[in-house]
Automatic annotation (TrEMBL):
Residues 84-202 form the GST C-terminal domain. PROSITE patterns: GST_CTER, GST_NTER. This is Uncharacterized protein. Residues 3-82 form the GST N-terminal domain. It comes from Lasiodiplodia theobromae. Transmembrane segments: none annotated. CDD domains: GST_C_family, GST_N_family. It comes from the Eukaryota. InterPro entries: DUF7962 (IPR058268), Glutathione-S-Trfase_C-like (IPR010987), Glutathione-S-Trfase_C_sf (IPR036282), Glutathione_S-Trfase_N (IPR004045), Thioredoxin-like_sf (IPR036249).
Length: 202
């Protein structure tokens, strides 16, 4: 590899997991600089970066701050993971999935400082009736998982594009794994391995 690649992120971020997944699929060597979950982030401040979200990827002197831009930059430079004409649609699906999950995140993950920080990015977290949104959000998540189980993965292949992961998987799989495993929604009724075996083995 030519220019050094440095990823500024933290483990719990589903979007950081998306970028790490793409980098691993692409067999690209990179360095990680772990970041605080909430501001301030001195490492990025020292670089003059005011963008408040992670991940941030530096490739030599080039810095990419938006997840979509990071995916595009990696694909443009290395082209190691299969692309498809519907990739943007899968990206939108991943965004829709995440927006529903925001309304169903278990309360134990919402400590006051984290919640205050994220309310500035995701206003739904500041709604006083957030708890009442959870049942409908779980219903929406189940419906979206059914689409993944039966349509995206229903062709017999292990991945959306068949037997090998593609950019479509990059846009959707890490968000789903974060939902089911990292925040534990896979333990909720109707979201388990028996309900969605293909999704859980994805």
């Amino acid at each position: 590899m030519g220019s050094p690649m440095i990823l500024y992120d933290y483990d719990f971020s589903p979007f950081s997991q998306r970028i790490r997944y793409l980098l691993h699929l692409s067999d690209i060597e990179f360095f990680r600089v772990d970041q605080p979950v909430v501001l301030p982030r001195p490492d990025l401040q020292m670089l003059g970066i005011t963008y408040r979200r992670v991940p941030v990827l530096a490739i030599g002197k080039d810095v990419y701050c938006d997840t979509s831009a990071i995916v595009a930059a990696i694909q443009h430079r290395f082209q190691m993971v299969k692309t498809g004409p519907a990739d943007k649609a899968f990206e939108a699906f991943g965004t829709q999935f995440f927006e529903n999950v925001l309304r169903a995140v278990p309360a134990k993950f919402m400590n006051p400082s984290f919640k205050r920080d994220r309310e500035t990015i995701f206003p739904v977290l500041g709604r006083p009736d957030l708890d009442t949104l959870r049942p409908s959000a779980l219903g929406s998540i189940i419906s979206l998982l059914a689409v993944i189980e039966n349509d995206f993965l229903g062709h017999g292949g292990q991945y959306i594009g068949g037997d090998k992961p593609s950019v479509a998987d990059v846009y959707v799989a890490p968000i789903v794994r974060w939902t089911l495993l990292s925040i534990g929604l896979g333990d909720e009724p109707g979201l388990g391995k028996r309900d969605f075996p293909r999704v859980h083995s994805w």
